[in-house]
Specification:
By secondary structure, the chain is α+β, with helices and mostly antiparallel strands. It is about 15% helix and about 35% strand. It is built from 5 helices and 16 strands. Strands 1, 5, 6, 11, 14 and 16 form a 6-stranded antiparallel β-sheet that branches. A hairpin with a 4-residue loop joins strand 12 and strand 13. The N and C termini lie far apart (about 95 Å).
């Protein structure tokens, strides 16, 4: 009996006990559930709503305030085609929509119109703005965003990461060390196109991970297993990593990449996404310290605010230009649609 207990203890010690599993993003949580601006139908997602009015300037903010507020609602995601594929027909027929699944409820539907000519092409499905890793605020039912003040940013949780009572994140997972596995639940319609997932780390580096091909029918799980992941701790490169002011490592969702080979079918392509999940090692075992460094020095806060201002300027200017262009569009009924 004693020998069995010893063997069990040895087996437990041989297996790392610090692996975690989490849902990085679940598109069923990104339904439009509040109404911003004119209209009587929900058009934004409350949890992920962002306000970019500060970047538009006082004149634009007063006149076009509602268009400067946006969220990760499914219909707001952008589909960007390769430069060689950006014809009017291809771009106008490439977009995202909410879709209803009998198995999973609401999912993100994607339509992409690839060129029919025999050359390689790709399409990128990205969120409408760079998902912030530190967004300490709350959103009311009417869309009012209130900043939450605490005793230091490191002791608080962003709206886009796991909060108490949450089962999934909204694009951000903190305290991520080495990624062991990555999983995407995606619907296939026998298209031979390749799927990759884009992840962004705490230093802003993008990593595109090839998941596999969508040449199957129905819901499937495409899983990437890190070939450089070492299960045996004794074989790992052990080192001490400085903690502050290097913020706790995190992973952000950057989008999907669909690749179409020149020899494969072109034209319309449709697929659906349910969620993205990770299995990863913890970067730090104990995230609580005797002294709140950030409350004293504010280094992380300053750095993240600079990123946020840049993102507000980039997105805010684009939103204003899009809105003005929409206002200039012709509203008359086309001749071809008028009754003779």
């Amino acid at each position: 009996m004693k020998k069995i207990l010893i063997l069990v203890l040895i087996a437990m010690l041989a297996v790392p006990m610090f692996a975690e599993e989490g849902v990085l993003i679940d598109f069923s949580t990104l339904t439009a559930n509040i109404t911003i601006g004119d209209g009587d139908r929900p058009n934004q997602n409350q949890r992920t709503l962002m306000d970019f009015r500060q970047a538009a300037g006082p004149s634009y903010a007063a006149q076009y305030g509602d268009v400067m507020r946006t969220s990760l609602a499914i219909q707001n995601w952008e589909v960007t085609l390769a430069s060689s594929s950006r014809t009017v027909a291809n771009m106008s027929n490439s977009f995202t929509r909410e879709a209803t699944s009998r198995e999973h409820g609401t999912v993100m539907g994607v339509r992409i119109h690839f060129p029919t000519e025999p050359f390689n092409s790709w399409a990128m499905i990205k969120p409408p703005f760079d998902i912030p890793a530190y967004e300490m605020s709350t959103v009311d039912a009417d869309g009012t965003i209130t900043r939450v003040e605490g005793d230091g940013i490191t002791s608080m949780k962003s709206r886009f990461e796991l909060q108490d009572g949450d089962e999934v994140a909204f694009g951000v997972i903190k305290n991520v060390g080495t990624i062991r596995e990555l999983k995407v639940r995606v619907y296939g319609l026998n298209f031979p196109h390749g799927l990759s997932t884009i992840l962004i780390d705490g230093m802003g580096n993008e990593r595109t991970i090839f998941m596999g091909y969508l040449n199957y029918d129905g819901w499937g799980e495409l899983i990437w297993r890190n070939p450089q992941y070492l299960q045996e701790v004794r074989n790992r490169d052990l080192r001490i990593v400085p903690l502050y002011p290097f913020n706790t490592p995190f992973i952000k969702f950057g989008g999907f990449l669909i690749q179409r080979d020149a020899a494969r079918v072109g034209g319309d392509f449709v697929t659906y996404f349910k969620d993205v999940s990770l299995i990863y090692d913890l970067a730090v075992l104990d995230t609580e310290h005797d002294i709140d460094n950030e409350a004293i020095w504010g280094i992380i806060q300053t750095r993240e605010e600079a990123r946020k201002v840049w993102e507000m300027q980039r997105f805010g200017e684009n939103q204003v230009l899009r809105y003005l262009e929409q206002q200039r569009q012709a509203t008359e009924i086309p001749f071809s649609e008028r009754q003779q």
